[in-house]
Amino acid sequence: MDSDLVAELIDRATRLITEHAEELTALDRAIGDGDHGINMKRGFEAVREDAERLARLDLGGALQQAGMILVRTVGGASGPLYGSLLMGMGRAAGEGAPPPALLAAGIEMVKRRGKADRGCKTMLDVLIPVQETLAQASEGPRPELLRRLRETADRALEETRDMLATRGRASFLGERSRGHLDPGAASSRLLVHAVCDVLEAVA
Ligand code: ADP
Ligand code: MG
User: Fold this and answer.
1) 12 lines ligand 1 (CB under 6 A)
2) Using a 6 Å cutoff on CB, does residue 43 contact ligand 1?
3) Does position 203 have pLDDT exceeding 70, yes or no?
4) Ion ligand 2 nearby residues (CB, 5 A)
5) Which helix (H) or strand (E) holds 19?
6) % of the chain beyond a pLDDT of 90
7) Which among 22, 46, 165, 196 has most CB atoms closer than 10 A?
């Protein structure tokens, strides 16, 4: 069960990131250095290359190993941050945490690593609201939960547009960072959709 799930999650996430790499890079060109799509594509393709090995691990082990691959291969600010997210989630999964606690643990690692929180115009501005929705709705019917998670991620990404960036490269632009979506928030939204796609198929 875990093994199919892990393989499908890797495949879907890599596919969505790869398909949208140009878009992510374009967003990063506006308020960063134009490498976010390339970085993420490289990282997820490296994870996919190791998919067979990862799929033999339990969910916790697979998340931790995938996180380590991302740290090694993504580069930029987002590599260590996405690595922290997956490693934090993996550790919590190993301790048997339910999904909302699992995502919360990953978010804590990202916050610590990036010295950031909600409102800094980063990936956290998608991840935190999605975690809140997951915590509120995880007991409800699966299709309704997935719909709400997707909607939350979409809305949260859109809300980064008018934010002032106070972390990462975009913060160098000051007020000029307003009016653009955050690239890391956009990749986080894609990953939320990837997870929902897979869970929808097994529902
Ligand atoms: P770099 O900025 O080094 O080129 P990327 O372009 O791959 O790295 O990633 C940029 C994204 O990383 C940003 O859009 C933002 O979402 C995220 N990010 C940058 N710094 C932080 C931070 N301190 N905390 C959380 N997320 C951050
Ligand atoms: Mg960049």
Assistant:
1) no
2) no
3) no
4) 28, 32-33, 35-36
5) helix 2-19
6) 94
7) 165
Q: What is the DSSP string of 56-113?
A: TS-HHHHHHHHHHHHHHHT-TTHHHHHHHHHHHHHHHHHTT--HHHHHHHHHHHHHHH
The structure tokens listed for 119 are 């409102």
Ligand 2 centroid–CA 173 distance in Å is 13
Q: Distance between CA atoms of 68 and 83, rounded to whole angstroms?
A: 6
pLDDT mean across residues, the chain: 96
* Token pair recorded at residue 187: 């990749």
Domain ranges of the chain: 3-201
CA distance 109 to 63: 14
Residue 105 has which token pair?
A: 């643990």
Q: Give the tens place of pLDDT for each residue, 35-78.
A: 999 999 999 999 999 999 999 999 999 999 999 999 999 989 99
Confidence band, pLDDT 50/70/90 cuts, at residue 140:
confident
Q: What CA–CA distance (Å, rounded) separates 201 from 83?
A: 26
Note the Cα 69 to chain centre separation in Å.
14
Kindly report the number of other CB atoms within 10 A of residue 22's CB atom: 12
Q: Give helix 78-94 / helix 36-49 axis angle, nearest 10°.
A: 40
